[in-house]
């Protein structure tokens, strides 16, 4: 059985940004990650960045969802069904006129949400537990821990790739058996 530590992206290889950076800085960092050539073409692109404290502690991860929510804070509030939807979803709305200034004023620290217990997993956990947490929580990634420290990220795409490789290996083993029959 594969373990999380064999599948995760180590913290050192994951895009990072200081907690004092602006939302604008985070947007630029994510844009760079998404658009620049991949170091490892077999690995899917990262869709989040790690937010680091000056002392090296990980505060959390900032996803594409968090960036969009940061641009328009009302996304964090429930929408009343009888309220005009256009007020919430019209990106040409006047409130977006000062978007660049707004993005420079907001600090990434302000956008982080507290991570739930199920968003963490030990590096020694088995793939099946990681897959269970990802599916059950409908998560795109897990923060991988060694003791109390965050040491990496396990992405849904990493778990999916591992599962497809297990299935392919099982099919390859079964193929010679079928040929004998």
TrEMBL record:
Domain of life: Bacteria
Domain (CBS) ranges: 8-79
Name of the protein this chain belongs to: CBS domain-containing protein
Keywords: CBS domain
Gene3D superfamilies: CBS-domain
InterPro entries hit by this protein: CBS_dom, CBS_dom_sf
Species: Defluviicoccus vanus
